[in-house]
Amino acid sequence: MTSLTGRWPGLRRPQRKYIPVLATLSLLAVMYGVGAVRYEAFSDGQVILNVFVDNAFLLVVAAGMTFVILTGGIDLSVGSVVALTTMLSASLLQEQGWPPYAVLPFVLFVGALLGFAMGCIIHYFEIQPFIVTLAGMFLARGLCYTISTSSIPITDPFWTSMAQSKVRFGEYFVSPSVIVALVVVIVGAYVLSHTRLGRNTYAIGGNPASALLMGLPVARTQITVYAISGFCSALGGVLLSFYMLSGYGLHAVGMELDAIAAVVIGGTLLTGGSGYLVGTVLGVLVLGVIQTIITFDGTLSSWWTKIVIGALLFVFILLQRVIGARKAR
Amino acid sequence: MTASLSGHMSALTRRRLFWPVTILIVLLLANLLFTPDFFKIEIRGGHLYGSLIDIVRFGAPLIMVALGMTLVIATRGIDLSVGSIVAICGALACLWISGQDDQNSVAGVLTAVGLALGLALVLGLWNGFLVAGVGMQPIIATLILMVAGRGLAQLITDGQIITINSTPYKLIGGGYWLTVPFSILLALGAVALAVALTRRTALGMLIESVGGNAEASRLAGIGSRRIIVMVYVFCAFCAGIAGLMISSNVSSADGNNAGLWIELDAILAVVIGGTSLAGGRFSIGGTVVGALLIQALSTTIYTVGVPPETTLLFKALVVTVVCLIQSPAFRAKVFQRRRRPSARAAAREKTKVEVAP
Amino acid sequence: ACGGGQDSSANQSGGGSDQLTLGFSQVGAESGWRTANTKSVQEAAKEAGIDLKFSDAQQKQENQIKAIRSFIQQKVDAIAFSPVVESGWDTVLKEVKDAGIPVILTDRAVDSTDTSLYKTFIGSDFVVEGTKAGEWLVKEYEGKPDPVNIVELQGTTGSAPANDRKKGFGDVVAADPKFKIIASQTGDFTRAKGKEVMEAFLKANKDIDVLFAHNDDMGLGAIEAIEGAGLRPGTDIKIITIDGVKDGMQALADGKISFIAECSPLLGPQLMDLVKKAVKGEQIPTRVLTEETTFTQEQAKAALPGRKY
Amino acid sequence: MAEPAAILAMTGITKEFPGVKALSDVDFRLFPGEVHALMGENGAGKSTLIKALTGVYDIDGGEILLEGEAVRFTGPLQAQQAGVSTVYQEINLCPNLSVAENIFIGREPRRLGAIQWKKIHRRATELLRRLRLDIDASALLGTYSIAVQQMVAIARAIDISAKVLIFDEPTSSLDAKECEQLFRVMRQLKDEGIAILFVTHFLDQVYEVTDRVTVLRNGRLVGERLTAELAQIDLVAMMIGKELEVLEQLDEQPKSSPAALQDASPVVAASELGRDGAVAPFNLAIHRGEVVGLAGLLGSGRTEVARLLFGADRADHGQIRVDGTTVAVRNPRTAMAHGIAFCSENRRTEGLVEDLTVRENIILALQAERGWSRPIPRRRQEELVDKYIKALRITPANPDMVVRNLSGGNQQKVLLARWLITEPRLLILDEPTRGIDVGAKAEIQRLVVSLADGGMAVLFISAELEEVLRLSHKIAVLRDRHLVTEMPNDGVDVEHVMRIIASGAAV
Ligand SMILES: Nc1ncnc2c1ncn2[C@@H]1O[C@H](COP(=O)(O)OP(=O)(O)OP(=O)(O)O)[C@@H](O)[C@H]1O
Ligand SMILES: Nc1ncnc2c1ncn2[C@@H]1O[C@H](COP(=O)(O)OP(=O)(O)OP(=O)(O)O)[C@@H](O)[C@H]1O
Ligand SMILES: O[C@@H]1[C@H](O)[C@H](O)CO[C@H]1O
Ligand SMILES: [Mg+2]
Ligand SMILES: [Mg+2]
């Protein structure tokens, strides 16, 4: 294949490895176009910005998940860690009276620590990530309920200001969380492409046995990606607590599936070793736009909502594959 | 020589099951502290009655789902849609029966069962087509049906809980046959069928081959696609039966809650049973033990009286312990045995060969 | 299907004779109760000639917030929603207020201190439901000094109806030491779980007098377990549940359930009235209680024929 | 006796796997500035010794001295940091990364923590040029053939400027030209004082580049000699450790007897068969009892030809005739139904299912042909498997051993056995003798001859031109993905074929 492209140097076709991402991007554009034609208010630029506003936390969580999936692992605990973070933040702020500048680093640390611990178990005891993080999922959710079974509202001024202030561009705006999420994505993308940690992440996903024999620090990398995912989940939890201004044990139920779906739709292989963070951003947008289309439609009953989400997912992934396959030839 | 070899093999599998079985027993014994007659099995009203029977009876749907999941996982796949299939099949069967004038008509019930399982096969075919035909990653391919299927189940029930009153249907998940809960017999039958299908024919080996190395299998002439499709169809079929059991047990179909999160429990059961999520080797016996372990855990939580807000912590603890103890790496690192120093001494009287200068 | 959005934006400020648009964000379809609630809203909207933009949040608060944002964008005339959770609505409700759209809460309140963020709250009070259940029990055992062993089937851990019903019931029975809650587990609001947990209760506890289930469905599941153990539900073990769905009422009429505190999902017509008034700017009360009652076995027999859900 | 101090000294190394004693009390030493061959039959323990050194395996006993200091590496990372750089037998690189990255990963040049990609590409290109490897350093490694990957692995090892360089069968997939490049670099490194441990099955190579030889047999040390003082025949005797008759047979070349084969219609004939971007349309006919050899450089398209004939890839042009009738070979299954078998070159990714046992791997293709519902009876399985374990001398002779734990050469034999038991009419062998010891290689060659004598048609692909010439009745030469010529093997010599390969002209 490589030599094939080489034969027609004049033909500037995109590198093969970017095709999944490009396919996703073009389909996303088409989807947006369809929405804009069907629903009048849809074409307002703010609609797209709202997709970011409403999914900033998912974006951060999915970014962490991308690291883990790139190594060929998976992290099912993210949704629960998000919930735990909201719960911890709320209870520390409201009930323990901690100041925000102490709460923030603390909850982020707890998230990273949970991820770190899971990474250690996965690596040193050679237990499958799916199971370790499933246990982590139970643990974090269980910890939520030990704090409280009901929701705790957050009234801290810093939190409320993060929730209610807007970053404006002319008539458009986003929330500060969106900025945070974008920074996370940019930093993440940089780490993946320009640091040893990032490259080792890809290498382990490509072939863990080889990575070990090549003398790469497999242990450190593997544990770090889970710590990153834990950190991102906690950060996502903080953003969610800005968004909701509450802590609750039932927040973010099933978010792990959304995050995994976003990563995979973005073109990252679950077997590891191949994919980009930009893809994950697109994946989150796809989920967000599907949701938006359904809300704009406003005529679907509960079950039709689910069926239509499933159908749109199907069409999207199918087309993505078809386009990808055609371009790759 | 053959005999000794197969003897060796089964010793191996036995060792693989040693830990899950031990933990299962420990868990059951723990109940004894709280409920002295936990192990008592009696005949009450012509039925076997007792906590142990309950564990198997309530565990039967999980065994079914995990059984299908085992084969899917062996091909390096995963099926997230089983919960939705459970809901859909229960819903369709109950809808059909509720529409009958005589809900107790055996013919009507059989039609309902046939329709529901037929639909399950179609859904399995759909999953198999997406994975093997279109080439989607299994987790995403089955996520589609997981999401849409819940909607479908609710569409069938119109969002309500369909309640039926049908004695023949009740038999499937809540009835007894020769004093034994029928669901246990069904699960036993399915396990026996799966074992026969995979170990008496070459299917098991071909599945393990496809899961171990799909490309090598293709080049060895194995119709990997057909096998993958078959496995998803079987998995959906098992989930369909589980759906019938669950809805029959409570004589109603709940499109929303039936089989919710059962996929996670099933995957957990498979892994506890020693089948790797990376595909390849699988163990049906292990899966059954895993499923029973999970059900025993729930029952223990109820009988011991773990408060609801800490049940998840408890579950996390047990899952972690089970997996750690099962992990050879953990045992090696934690209960580190001394290195055998004798190896060198024993080899001293070797026939040392001359070394060129 | 797409026409609705455009119509509504065209005549949003017009009000008057033109059709009103109501954005309604439902929790999900997690139970038969909820579905009945949805139906009631949809039917009432049709009857009242209101264009309903319905959105299912699939039990996620973030989805509800998204839906409300998109209602603002679509410039609906009024917004109603059943909050998944009490907390965390201030931000988006402020946005709604800025857009000048009236908000009506249904089924469940929010804990905002700023009550100007919504016009009214219509719905039941879960604590009161639990209290009613407890009060009936206290009355039933009045004058009998023997200890009463109660088992409780809780709703989904952490959900508001579970928390509140447990609290309402618990507070009442705690007043008299003869009432003892000997076991309490979650049955996830479902029949299957209700049955499974009850089976375990029956084996672990020899002497159960009363079952309190947070909804009918768990109670119905438990009935099967009790019958399976060779006991008579309603007689050997008294059963109190909440909701009053058709199957529950039937069991009540059959004597298998002893008492039901109603939790009515039929808020639709009341809601539409309030919406019309709110859009016109009329004065409306800030709290509207759903018309709810309690049922004994006798009352159930009478009410059953007219039961819709 | 003026020997310098050994840079590496391993004494009494013992390593046991469940059921197999891979190494027992082995001593090995390595001096700076020497190339030291580690020899032994398949399964002798060469790779295990290397992995014991670099810490991939924990050893059960023994001592390792590196520059006089006792070491026990915890893994390749530590070994690398101590100056021991290794190319393991199974290529261990990441196919999902670029060539350049594979060379530099883990030791990328950085500025302020950021990887300097430009620098990496520049240095990789230089390094590849030094190895005379003309490939795109920025392309994904996985798009290249094993041989190229092998060269990349070597490039990586060399560039990690180490004191000790270990090559475990690096040449098994290289052609003569590439071996030459490798040896040139090895000599250069040796002159710089680096100690090189070199595992190979090619005796010629041993004599060409090594200074010293250590021989293992069955996990035990047989002896250590200076290459110059060891006659080739003695070396083989040390390895095989038995009767000279085997060796005599080895020298005696299998006869090719091009009979009146061409008369009958060919078993399989390809006409204008081709696949865009892979191999240009070609014609090729293989008759009953005929061995057709495919010659060409790496990447010339030999494997592609084989894959098209087997239906592993779909052809874009042309057709295949079996016994004169055109058949649709859509996939391996249909090819097998017409009696075609294909023993692929890349045993790990396209051949074996490493987690299955020897028995299961051997019967896999036969079982696939029969379909899942007709299992091969256990007794029959055992007969077949036993027969081929004996015939190909697969060790350990345990049919229930997981293939992953077999030595490289024995894995290759298992793959071969899989296809032999299907009794095909056309057997395609892509590099069947790669990584196989002398004894086994001779046996496989004899096997090919006897199969052909028995009427089987064989398509034989090998990087070793001599081998192709020795076995084939007919030789087809590929160059740059074109089948340039086809000729009967009547007294053709290596030189001649090389010229065709080089010039592309059918002389
Ligand atoms: N991980 C393992 N588990 C069990 N046995 C093993 C393992 N690795 C190697 N062996 C066994 O150890 C012995 C030595 O194998 P090794 O790979 O060192 O041979 P080798 O000399 O490198 O052979 P080859 O030339 O075929 O590569 C073989 O019998 C092999 O089956
Ligand atoms: N030197 C090279 N430059 C570029 N690509 C190469 C080179 N060598 C091999 N390849 C790639 O490897 C693929 C496999 O080639 P193929 O296996 O048909 O060749 P071969 O003659 O069988 O060589 P080998 O000796 O590696 O088996 C080709 O598709 C080609 O892309
Ligand atoms: O299912 C539950 C209950 O039945 C309750 O009465 C109302 O909320 C629903 O979620
Ligand atoms: Mg080796
Ligand atoms: Mg080749």
UniProtKB/TrEMBL annotation, chain A:
GO cellular component: plasma membrane
Compartmental location: Cell membrane
Top-level taxon in the UniProt lineage: Bacteria
Membrane-spanning intervals of the chain: 18-35, 47-70, 76-94, 101-124, 130-148, 169-192, 223-245, 257-290, 302-319
InterPro entries: ABC_transp_permease
GO MF entries: transmembrane transporter activity
Keywords of the record: Cell membrane, Membrane, Sugar transport, Transmembrane, Transmembrane helix, Transport
Membrane topology: Multi-pass membrane protein
Protein name in the entry: Simple sugar transport system permease protein
From TrEMBL, chain B:
Cellular localisation: Cell membrane
Transmembrane stretches, start-end: 17-35, 55-73, 80-99, 105-126, 138-156, 176-197, 227-246, 258-277, 284-306, 312-330
Domain of life, source organism: Bacteria
GO MF terms, alphabetically ordered: transmembrane transporter activity
Record-linked CDD domains: TM_PBP1_transp_AraH_like
Pfam families: BPD_transp_2 (PF02653)
Keywords of this entry: Cell membrane, Membrane, Sugar transport, Transmembrane, Transmembrane helix, Transport
GO CC terms, sorted: plasma membrane
Main location (coarse class): membrane
Membrane topology, record value: Multi-pass membrane protein
Stated name of the protein: Simple sugar transport system permease protein
Record organism: Streptosporangium subroseum
UniProtKB/TrEMBL annotation, chain D:
PROSITE patterns: ABC_TRANSPORTER_1, ABC_TRANSPORTER_2
Top-rank taxon: Bacteria
Pfam family, one: ABC_tran
Membrane topology value: Peripheral membrane protein
Main location: membrane
PANTHER family: CARBOHYDRATE TRANSPORT ATP-BINDING PROTEIN MG119-RELATED (PTHR43790), GALACTOFURANOSE TRANSPORTER ATP-BINDING PROTEIN YTFR (PTHR43790:SF9)
CDD domains assigned: ABC_Carb_Monos_I (cd03216), ABC_Carb_Monos_II (cd03215)
Organism, as annotated: Streptosporangium subroseum
Cell inner membrane found in the keyword field: no
Keyword flag Hydrolase: no
Official protein name in the record: Simple sugar transport system ATP-binding protein
GO MF term set: ATP binding; ATP hydrolysis activity
ABC transporter domain segment(s): 8-243, 259-505
